[in-house]
Write a structure and sequence with these properties.
Aminopeptidase, 6 helices
């Protein structure tokens, strides 16, 4: 089914450290779930409705559908750790109302409103990636270059994701609307490349998506542990 990543010695060391950090932080947050129930994580499933995002080169799967599936998995895992969550998009539809001119701007503004109405303490925007070369693979995390907390969250999440996939990506600064909706640490997680056949195969597999969602939650917990939250 899913091909195993080729692990280097360094990657195995990172994975071991990540697993240890996750075990410690998960125990802490579950033990104190009630105390952390006021910590709100906003989950933004990118695209939706007539805006399907990128499309899988092999299966034709729509990014918007995968984004929503991933966001719900992350939501369930965060809530199991005692956090409150809010979803910007809860079904296959966009947030723009009628599909008329300016729909994308309306959609983005509504996402920002939901995040701010919830007084989110963290924002995770879920997307799928695409690149001109099919060789590019693996999850990539973006943050707002003007946010130190956003960079710390992105670095923590990218470390966990690299340990899971065996990639060596670095978190990247990006000038994206969803990273500027709030002063709270915000990241865009591109879960993989739908232009890469192997990534596409993994991302259309429910078992893989569940494991990936768990790693994303580990990244959030790793950040919080380091930030003393």
């Amino acid at each position: 089914m899913i091909k195993k990543a080729v692990w280097t010695g360094a990657a195995l060391c990172v994975a071991a450290v990540c697993a240890m950090v996750y075990a410690l932080t998960l125990f802490t947050y579950r033990a104190g779930a009630e105390a952390y129930y006021d910590y709100v994580v906003a989950l933004d499933a990118g695209h939706g409705g007539i805006d399907g995002g990128v499309v899988g080169t092999t299966t034709g799967v729509r990014e918007s559908d995968l984004n929503l599936a991933m966001a719900y998995l992350i939501k369930d895992k965060l809530e199991n750790c005692g956090f409150r969550t809010v979803m910007t998009r809860t079904d296959e539809n966009g947030l723009y109302g009628s599909a008329t001119g300016g729909f994308k701007q309306r959609d983005m503004r509504r996402r920002r409103e939901i995040i701010n109405e919830a007084k989110a303490d963290m924002v995770i925007s879920v997307h799928m990636n695409k690149f001109s070369s099919p060789s590019r693979s693996g999850p990539q995390v973006f943050y707002d270059g003007g946010s130190a907390a956003g960079k710390a969250l992105a670095d923590s999440m990218q470390t966990m994701l690299n340990g899971f996939t065996g990639n060596g990506h670095s978190a990247l600064a990006g000038d994206y609307y969803m990273l500027k909706c709030t002063s709270a640490p915000s990241v865009i997680v591109e879960c993989g490349f739908l232009s890469n056949p192997d990534d596409e195969k993994k991302l259309t597999d429910g078992v893989y998506r569940d494991s990936l969602a768990e790693v994303i939650v580990r990244g959030a917990l790793y950040y919080m542990s380091g930030a003393g939250i």
